[in-house]
Amino acid sequence: QRPRAVFIARGASACEFPARVPRSSRRPARSTPTDSAAMAESPESPRARAASILTPGGSPRTIGADLWDDVKCKFVVVTGGIMSGIGKGVTASSVGVVLKSCGLNVTSIKIDPYLNIDAGTMSPFEHGEVFVLNDGGEADLDLGNYERFIDLQLTRDHNITTGKIYQRAIQRERQGDYLGKTVLVVPHVTDTIQTWIRDIAEKPTNGVPATPDVCVIELGGTIGDMESMPFVEALRQMQMVLGPQRFFHIHVSLVPIMSGELKTKPTQHSVRDVRAAGLHPSAIACRCKEYVHEAARSKIAQFCQVPTSAVISVHDVANMYFVPGNLLRGGLLQVMQRQLQLHDVQCDLTSWNAIAQALEDTTKLTTSVRICIVGKYTGLQDSYLSVIRALQHAAIAQKQRLEIVWVEAEKLERREEADPAAYDNAWESVRSCHGILVPGGFGDRGFEGKILVSKYARENRVPYLGICLGMHAAVVDAARHAAGLEGANSEEFDKSAAHHVLVYMPEISRTHMGGTMRLGLHTTRIVEDGSLAERLYGSREIHERHRHRYEVNTQYKEQLERAGLRFVGCDSTHKRMEIVELAQEAHPFFFAVQYHPEFLSRPNRPSAPFLGLMRAACGEDVAPSL
User: Fold this and answer.
1) How far is CA 589 from CA 3, 162, 369, 431, 484, in A?
2) How many CB atoms lie within 10 A of CB 269?
3) Per residue in 91-130, pLDDT tens?
4) How far, rounded to the nearest angstrom, does the alpha carbon of residue 530 sit from its chain's CA centroid?
5) Of the candidates 286, 295, 197, which has an alpha carbon nearest to the alpha carbon of residue 250?
6) Each residue of 486-517: b (16+ CB within 10 Å) or e?
7) Phi-psi map region of 538: left, alpha, beta (phi>0 left; psi -120 to 50 alpha)
8) Which one from 468, 472, 500, 578 is the annotated catalytic residue?
9) Is there a contact between 593 and 607 (Cβ–Cβ < 8 Å)?
10) Sheet hosting strand 590-593, strand order edge to edge
């Protein structure tokens, strides 16, 4: 029996502690090779005791260095410093374009440090538009950039949020999966993050069975934010385990201009914060209004411990499609090739540069096509980012200079005595345009203005494209002003209306808001031969992304069709109306859809409804004859 020492504190009772045991007595016997092998296979071995984490699909994995042993994918991580909105999303997307142009299979992940499970319940004024994915995921708008730039089809799991990570960790704790351990941010939350990244990075995209070669990860927010620290720590651990041959870190920082001089100190401090958090940038992307000259880049390199060749000027350009070319000319690919050992790859941006130049050429035209967007979030244009991009894609295809005129729908409703000019100016803007687009939205504010602008377009033969709520406005307009259904409205805005021509979908929850709408890619069948919809798409079956809770009340379908509306598209059950249009002899282009075609528009493949609107606004035939 070990001797015991007695320690008596002043004013306290005696406390016994084990006496110190000589070091030689504590040293265990040296194990034999046979003992070591047995220990490695033992249930009590460190490897066996490592925590297992559920993947997005629900299967367990072992956490530790061996988590990454069989992962062939290389990682490019993009972080930002100094301020948000600095251009991390476009930089990450452009890096993806460069890598894909080298013949590599590329995927993308966006990390958003907010506690929301997804962006679905957030106001557009808070975070810009909600981008909808094929599987119904409601994601950050940067996933739209990834899809448009790299031509991907991502899933909800490609958007990681703090809410998703903590939900997963807490769920495991409640299930008893941590075996009585104290659940901590490190290692349990950081392990959950790493496992999520690993499994999504290995997930094929676009239906291609091949595992991605490179995964581009964008960390939202700014380095130093409290919310993002668990993700920074997880990425630090990844960088340590993967090594420089599989982990490339690009830090995007601002280089402001004051009194005509480029200031490098903010970037120096930003990189210092990154290094203090444990991440070591492989390259620094310097955001600046002007080209960052060699002297400034050399100074940044000297104080940030990166080669001058790894300090890249990411200056303002005529349009964002020029950014991949600027990164390539700045030498970023060569730096990545050396570190990631990307041997025998040749980058060909010919087709991409053609898109960038085509958009630039349209800005030099002397005349423009004016498209009026009548919305309720016009104070923040990021609320309609995909709509803007889809219009740009159509303008490129038509070789037209696009001019977007923004009109707040609320200002079209009534002439206020306090500010009569706002009403007059809003309608003057509408009347000055060649086409009208009413995008989606939620809430009754401005809905009456959208109904009035639909009425104006219908009666004056002005090309009109209604999307989601824009389709609802067209249906209510036709019900009130063409079908004679006085008081017609949507159930969403007037529960006691005389005629609910739009009703709540029966399968949608009335108690939970997040993720309960009709979301994602659904099939729409065009049921009328020779319709405008069939001519636009060139097919009788189409697939588009949806996001809505309300739908056309089919009890009024016959009355509305007698008034001139034609419901030419429906879902696969033929019970849900998806597309409405006016007869082509009555109107050159009056087209409204329940889905969101803007989410599938690409620079080289513009969305059919947007292309039709652009052609109609130019006075051309909107679609070829079948």
Assistant:
1) 96, 45, 15, 16, 23
2) 14
3) 999 999 999 999 999 999 999 999 999 999 998 888 899 9
4) 36
5) 286
6) eebbbbbbeeebebbbbbbeeeeeeeeeeeeb
7) left
8) 468
9) no
10) 402-408, 369-375, 435-438, 464-467, 590-593, 577-582, 565-571, 518-526, 541-548
Q: Is 433 a catalytic residue?
A: no
Share of the chain above pLDDT 90, in %: 77
What distance in Å separates the CA atoms of residue 146 and residue 107, rounded to the nearest whole number?
A: 9
Is 570 assigned a catalytic role? no
Which is catalytic among the residues 147, 492, 534, 598?
598
Tokens 């940044």 -> residue? 300
Reduced 3-state DSSP string for 343-356: CCCCCCCHHHHHHH
Work out the number of other CB atoms within 10 angstroms of the CB of residue 114. Answer: 18
Q: By the 8 A CB rule, do 120 and 138 touch?
A: yes
- Stated pTM of the model: 0.87
CA dihedral over 363, 365, 371, 372, signed as positive or negative: positive
215 is catalytic: no
Tokens (6 digits) for 300: 């940044």
Three-state SS for 42-57 is CCCCHHHHCCEEECCC
Please state, in angstroms and rounded to a whole number, the distance separating the CA atoms of residues 431 and 503: 32
Do 403 and 371 contact (CB within 8 A), yes or no? Answer: yes
Give the model confidence (pLDDT) of 258-289 as tens digits. 999 999 999 999 999 999 999 999 999 999 99
Integer distance in angstroms from the first to the last C-alpha of the chain? 97
